[in-house]
Amino acid sequence: MKVLYISQQSERGSVCAIGLAKEGYSTTQLPGWSAYSFGWHSDDGAKFHNSGKSVGTVEPFRENDTVGMGILFSTREIFGLFLCLYHIPNLTNLLLPSHKKR
Known about the structure:
Strand order of the largest sheet: 1-2-3-4-5
Helix content: under 10%
Radius of gyration: 13 Å
CATH architecture: Sandwich
Number of strands: 8
């Protein structure tokens, strides 16, 4: 798994996205638009998980904002940080699949 930060131009202007994805994820698509990825997009705060269809929205972020994303492995929860002032719990409203130990 890797952390992604990708910026693209759109009809509405520049869009920045942060996300998590499996190793080898294409950097030509914003995180969350393809399988095995989750993304949080700056223009509208939309959250994407494994497809181009939004799974909800949270606070959008802008230029010079400080944002972050991480995983709480004990609960398999993805979380976001906005301006590093407050924690956005369970950003995905989805849980990551658990991995069984062999």
